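pls design
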């Protein structure tokens, strides 16, 4: 099992990055927030999970160990695969997932593309005590780089469009969250704010 990767980022996509480790480029699937938090040519560390299938070996990467824990735990529910687990973390932070599961918040869970009411009910039933009861942990990872000026806007817009919203919907959401985007806000936090706005 590949538990983590540390190396130089050689490529950044919408929902994936390539990390050069010992001369080998490792393709890592991530959430859009994690992808925009790393920088091309800069060192990065990602917590990872290797998903082994008959015809593939797929690596998923996370900014924090907590995200990795949630990713692995939600997949213990029947019908939840790595792509759906990753989508949950694209829409919600780990603590928001715990809160939704612990409180039975079906509305929050069904904001995730691919999760309907029945699926949300199954997640709550099976994970309420397994994951929902866990206390929120403080991320120990290095904070994401702060965006400069309006640089974050293009990054968040691209991520939202990649998740399925139209450019017009994404622009409207950004217009609403932009006034509250202080200098200390990370791209990850801004993306989550926009997702919450779109989910209203």
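designed seq:
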């Amino acid at each position: 099992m590949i538990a983590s990767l540390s190396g130089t980022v050689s490529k950044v996509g919408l929902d994936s990055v390539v990390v050069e480790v010992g001369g080998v480029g490792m393709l890592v699937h991530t959430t859009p927030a994690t992808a925009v938090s790393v920088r091309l040519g800069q060192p990065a560390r990602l917590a990872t999970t290797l998903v082994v299938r008959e015809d593939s070996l797929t690596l998923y990467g996370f900014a924090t160990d907590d995200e990795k824990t949630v990713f692995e735990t939600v997949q213990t529910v029947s019908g939840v695969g790595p792509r759906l687990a990753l989508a949950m973390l694209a829409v919600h932070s780990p603590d928001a997932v715990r809160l939704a599961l612990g409180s039975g918040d079906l509305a929050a869970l069904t904001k995730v593309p691919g999760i309907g009411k029945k699926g949300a009910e199954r997640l709550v039933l099976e994970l309420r005590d397994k994951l929902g009861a866990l206390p929120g942990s403080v991320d120990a990872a290095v904070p994401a780089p702060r965006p400069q000026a309006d640089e974050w806007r293009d990054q968040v817009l691209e991520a939202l469009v990649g998740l399925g919203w139209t450019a017009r919907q994404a622009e409207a959401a950004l217009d609403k969250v932009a006034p509250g985007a202080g200098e200390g806000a990370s791209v990850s936090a801004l993306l989550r704010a926009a997702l919450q706005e779109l989910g209203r």
